[in-house]
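Q&A FORM
Asked by: J.P.
Topic: structure of Transcriptional regulator, AraC family

PROVIDED:
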Amino acid sequence: MGIGINQLVDYYGRAPVSFFNIFAPSIPPGGRQLDWQTSKNGAGLVFPLSGSSRYTLNGTPYLLEPGVVLHAGPDTPVSKEVLGDVYWQYALIHYQIPKEDAAGFPLYHEHFLINTGIDTKLVDLIGQLRQSCAAPDGMAALKSKVLFMSLIEEMLISAKRQLHDENAELMVQAVEYIRQNYADPISVEKIAAHFGVNRRRFAYLFERHTGMSPIVYLTACRIRRSKELLRTCACPIVQVAECVGYTDSFYFSRLFKKQTGVSPTEFRTRVRENPWGM
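REPLIED BY: S.T.
REPLY: Here is the structure written out as C-alpha cells.
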C-alpha cells in the first residue's frame, strides 16, 4: 500500500497516538518466525538498524533494511525471515490509538513502508527512547512520550527530505556501495571518484543525506561486521581485521576500542560469557 507523505503528516498530526513500548532484538542469520500475529494492543513501527529481513504482512512481502521504516497495524498475520549472513537488528516501537477513535484513522490498521533514507538522528532518538523506558520513574515515562513524538517528527522530516533531494538516489547508491565494499581498501576519494563526484562535494552530500561523514559511516560498517565475526568465529584478531578492510591489526584494535570501549579480545570474551549482552 503506497502512502503519501502528506497523508502521514496529517495522520500523525491529528491522531491521538500514545507510545507504550519499545523492543530492540538482534536475530542471527537464518532466523525465522512463521505464522505470527502483530500485537493486538496497538500498531508498530519497525526501524531497521542493521542487516536485512523479509516481513510478510497478511500476504504482502516487505524487504526491510536501514533506510526504510515498516508500519504494521494491530492483530495482523506476519511472518519474518532474516536475509543474508548479517545479524538482523531493529527497533520495534508500539503505539496506540483509543478504540473509540481508531475507526476515524484507517492508517492505524494498515501496513506500508516509509522511505526515510539513512538518518543517524533517528538512531540516536531510538537509543534515548530505550534508555528512558528502562528507568522506572515518572519523569522517565514523561520523557519517553516526548521522545516518541520527536521520533515520529524526525521520521516524517526524513521521509519528506527524500522527496525533495535531487541527490538522494545518488547517496542511497553510495551508502549501498560502502555496505557492499567496506572490506576492500576503499577511501573517501575512491568512493567519490566511483560516482564521478568531487571529494569535497561528495562528503558534503553524504553527510547531509545520512547525518555522518563517509569515513564515519565506513568505519561503522567495518566495526559492526567485526563484532559479528568476533561473536561467531574463533579466527585470530588479525584475520578479523583483514576481513573488514584493515591490514594493520594494531590500528584495528585501537579503533575498535575507541568505538566500543573494549578491545576486540575483551569483546569476544564478554560475548562468550553473555552472548545476549553485547
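FOLLOW-UP: The longest strand covers residues 88-96.
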